[in-house]
């Protein structure tokens, strides 16, 4: 496979049959009663990286189990759990992030993060959550604007930690500074609620799309990230429009035009002017067929 794509930089996508199977499993897991966050993240990784086979997926799950086995048995309350995770994953194992990690697609792929011990805040948080969950910790993700962290314990005694900073346990002012630095906004109590696993996966895929948007030559990555997002039970309707434009960009003018026309019908109910603009894009796409 790699020999046929000399212009494409790694990671290389899987062949169509493998991709179809991965997407079927991704949709099935996303619609299950209790979606498994690590399984979904590893299926995203396999869609991105054709080198990640079933043995590699299993090895990543085994590594998460191994790390959980290294934690002390029930160290205490939320703060003790946060400190134990920091000492193991941050101090001993060296998991943390750097500004350079934002420039790498691998920073959004769980199997790569487990090997490199580097990643985006949200992927490092997935490692923290999955290791802690396996050990019985009261852990969850906290989707602060612009910076994902992890939380331990109930709302009234919540302890936050920042895996990107090696698991540093945050004080109240620390969290306020993170939010202010990322958005200029004030910290709101609603920002501290546990993140739903499917919202975590959608945010990871949004990061992948943002990475690809800055690299027009990797529209292949943008397309699979959009298509996986569309398999989630709840997703922004505008993703259909984004997929249609990507199809046109990649030379599938008829497929893109059909998608644009279908999206225009949906939008027309709330915004006739926007629907007309989208129909104009569909006409332009069809004209490229001539």
UniProtKB/TrEMBL annotation:
Residues 8-17 have a biased composition (Pro residues). Residues 64-206 form the Protein SirB1 N-terminal domain. The lineage of its organism: Bacteria, Bacillati, Actinomycetota, Actinomycetes, Kitasatosporales. Residues 1-30 are annotated as: Disordered. Residues 18-30 have a biased composition (Basic and acidic residues). Belongs to the UPF0162 family. This is Protein SirB1 N-terminal domain-containing protein. It comes from the Bacteria.
């Amino acid at each position: 496979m790699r020999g046929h794509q000399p212009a494409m930089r790694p990671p290389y996508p899987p062949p169509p049959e493998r991709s179809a199977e991965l997407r079927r499993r991704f949709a099935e897991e996303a619609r299950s009663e209790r979606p498994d966050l690590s399984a979904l993240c590893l299926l995203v990784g396999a869609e991105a990286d054709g080198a990640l086979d079933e043995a590699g997926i299993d090895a990543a799950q085994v590594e998460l189990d191994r790390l959980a086995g290294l934690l002390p048995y029930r160290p205490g309350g939320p703060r003790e759990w946060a400190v134990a995770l920091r000492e193991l994953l941050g101090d001993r194992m060296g998991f943390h992030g750097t500004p350079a990690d934002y420039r790498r697609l691998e920073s959004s792929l769980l199997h790569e993060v487990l090997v490199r011990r580097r990643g985006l805040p949200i992927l490092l948080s997935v490692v923290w959550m999955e290791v802690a969950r396996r050990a019985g910790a009261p852990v969850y993700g906290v989707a602060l604007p612009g910076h994902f962290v992890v939380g331990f314990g109930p709302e009234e005694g919540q302890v936050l930690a920042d895996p990107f900073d090696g698991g540093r346990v945050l004080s109240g002012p620390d969290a306020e500074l993170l939010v202010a630095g990322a958005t200029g906004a004030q910290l709101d109590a609603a920002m501290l609620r546990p993140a739903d696993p499917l919202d975590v996966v959608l945010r990871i895929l949004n990061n992948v799309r943002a990475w690809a948007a800055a690299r027009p030559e990797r529209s292949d990555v943008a397309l699979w990230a959009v298509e996986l997002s569309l398999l989630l039970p709840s997703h922004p309707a505008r993703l259909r429009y984004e997929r249609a434009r990507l199809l046109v960009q990649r030379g599938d003018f008829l497929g893109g035009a059909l998608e644009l026309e279908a999206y225009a019908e949906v939008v027309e109910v709330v915004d006739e002017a926007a629907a007309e603009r989208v129909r104009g894009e569909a006409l332009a796409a069809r004209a490229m067929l001539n």
